[in-house]
Every structure is written in structure tokens, then in C-alpha cells.
Amino acid sequence: MNPVPHDFTPLGLFLAADPIVKAVMIGLALASVACWAVIIEKTFALGRLRKQTRDLQRASASAQVAEPREEDLTAIALQAGLPEWRLGQGVQETDGEFRARIETAMRKAVLKAVRRSEPGLQLLATTGSVAPFVGLFGTVWGIMNSFTGIAASNDTSLAVVAPGIAEALFATAIGLVAAIPAVMAYNRFVGGLAGARQEALSAASDLALRLSRLPRAQAAE
Known about the structure:
Layout: H1 10-16, H2 19-60, H3 73-87, H4 95-115, H5 121-153, H6 158-213
Helix pairs in contact: 1-6, 2-5, 2-6, 3-4, 3-6, 4-6, 5-6
């Protein structure tokens, strides 16, 4: 009597797997979906942040400073800096201290705004570092069950061993599928956000310097 052929498709391997291995596979698949959602959202967020940073750089080089009309980095920086500028320079305050007061307010506001683009990176980092080990746990568990079944059946032929090992290794494959994009995306976004943050803070400093030198009549009320 010929044995029933085993289904080696991804769905077949999942359905035939041990319940614990199935739970590992499902968890890794959900983590992968969540990571891809973060990747898509961060791609658009980083694009918006870079555009707003360029706008802030242009504003810092502008001859005049106008009240912001849109809620972007330029608006956030000006909303923080204009009140300090309108207070004017104190009697005992040097030009440098006046500029530093405006710059500090602007940089704090810009930094807080940039940091709003960072949530979600922890998920990418965690998935990238943990997913391979979770998949390996599923593999080890599945192989242990395979050897237990082999010992119980007293049959060590490849036809008996292969299905269980394939099911176990499939868990590791899912772990790698979840981890590799997460690691690559995390490194890209961390570098991109760090660069945008540095450029935005530098532009905020330049804008504060220009604002501190402007007579009040030159800035739109």
C-alpha cells in the first residue's frame, strides 16, 4: 500500500503542523503584516518630513518672516519662536542670549514635531531581532515532535522524516520573511529620520538667527 503523498505547499505545511508550531507561524505572519503597515506609513511620513524640512530651510533663507498658514515644521517653529521675538530683547540680555532664547524655543518645538514620526520603529526593531529566534523555536519544537513520531513508529525512512522536518523548517522561513524586511526598513528609516532631524534643527537655528536680527516692522503680525 502506497503512503498518502504529503502536501508540501505552504498551506499544506501549515495545516499539518503541530498546534504550537501553527501558533508560531500565525504570530510571525501577523508581525510581518504589522511591519509592512509600519513600513508603508513611515515611507509616506518620511517623505512629508523631508518636504517640510526643505520648506523650513527655504523659510530660514527668506528675507521676511510671515505668520504661518499651514501646520508644518515652518509653522511649528514660528509658532514657538515668534512669541519670544515679540517679547523683545531684555534690558540686561545680550544679542546672543536673545537669539539663543528664540532658537531654544524653535528647536524644542521642531524636535518634538519630528519625534512624532518615530513611533512604529520599535516594532520594526523588535521584529527584526526576535522573529528569527521565534521561528527557530517553532523549528526546534517541530523537529522534536518529528523525532518523537519516528521513535514511536520505528520507521526512519526519509518519507517519514521529511514531512515533519519540512513543517518545522517552514516556521524558520516565515521568521526570516518577517525579520529581513523589518531590519532593512528600520535601518533606512532611522538613517532618514536622523538626517531629516538634523537638517530641520539646523534650519530652525538659522531661522532663529534671522528672526533675532529683524526689526519688528519687517515681520508680519
